[in-house]
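Q: I'm building a small set of examples for a reading group on sequence design. Run inverse folding on the following structure and report the sequence directly after it, with nothing in between.
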């Protein structure tokens, strides 16, 4: 099952950046307005939270004044865009390692 906020973010980005090169950005408020036109201000924190999760997974970049922000310490006006290959690699490298358990429970 797909998250409607995540879907809306990527649909808006597909329209803004059809070649998926990570050049064009969108405002989180545009996504919130599309999802809830009458009460978009209430939706905005949810859009930003989903965007933050996507950034931590390397699927999205949050920018401020055109530069990628630290996902742990940003505030203020932001924009969303598709990540470059380097940004995706950096985000994936920052994820904690996956620990595989070799125990047999047989």
């Amino acid at each position: 099952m797909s998250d409607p906020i995540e879907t809306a973010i990527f649909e808006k980005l597909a329209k803004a950046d059809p070649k998926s090169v990570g050049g064009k950005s969108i405002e989180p408020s545009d996504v919130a307005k599309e999802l809830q036109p009458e009460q978009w201000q209430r939706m905005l924190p949810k859009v930003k939270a989903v965007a933050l999760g996507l950034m931590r997974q390397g699927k999205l970049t949050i920018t401020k004044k055109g530069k990628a922000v630290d996902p742990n310490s940003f505030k203020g006006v932001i924009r969303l865009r598709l990540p470059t290959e380097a940004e995706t690699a950096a985000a994936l490298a920052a994820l904690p390692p996956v620990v595989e358990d070799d125990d047999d429970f047989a």
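The CA atoms of residues 58 and 90 lie 8 Å apart.
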